[in-house]
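Risk register update: the risk of archive-format incompatibility is retired. Evidence:
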Amino acid sequence: MKTTLICFSPTHTTRKALEAVAQGIGGETVVYDLTLPAGRGQFMGNVPTFGSEDLVLLGCPVYGGHMPPPLKMLLSGVNGGGAKAAVVCLYGNRHYDEAVAELYDLAKAQGFVPIGAGAFVGEHSFSHQIAGGRPNAQDLAQARSFGEQLREKALRGGELPREQVPFRPWDGAYLQHHRAHLSQVAGPQVEAGKCTGCGTCVSVCPMGVLQIGEDGKARAVGEPCLKCRSCARSCPTQAVDFHQEDFQLTLQNCLDTFAQPLRKNEMAI
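Archived output:
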């Protein structure tokens, strides 16, 4: 059985979890990482075809309770061809809200046969203090076990009913704060005195928001920015980050309201 892994993973937690699931399934695995513009361009230029003998893992992080728009757009151009699929979302210890259900619905609409769904905890992109180091060894062991169960389900047949998909309505208090503050933050800020112009932040930005200017320094040049902080996490001189007051208020809200207790992974087959 060939497994195809399709993911969007700016801070690598989604891909890490999906690779563990694929290890549990065993056999050959083909990976399509759609995080960066180049990878998305290659995918759109040669969209893979699937059939009923295939097993496809679809994964993404949760942003504000939803799946990221870039993956939604790309998967809307894929024909599942009756292939079996498992959908997995990584969330930063708050909640996955509607994201897993959205990915399930999209997979089914595109002709996949969903046989499993999972919501795994990953370190929050805003802070190492929220679910730091996750998915950890225990999480990855659970992901591999999930993969073993998926292999058995794929062999015996059957579809995962919609009502068994992990789902939770929007957290109204978080949504209100999210809209009031984080939506006001256009993009990252660069401290010119610290920036060496190495281009690392540019190379990891999933939305192409950053570029090197004529002065040899990085700068934010457009939207939409996902606030994934892959730029800040990768910058060797800590020159790039979100210092805006609205972002800092959101970060503090995250630390105050859902840094603890640590949540558990949820899986359905």
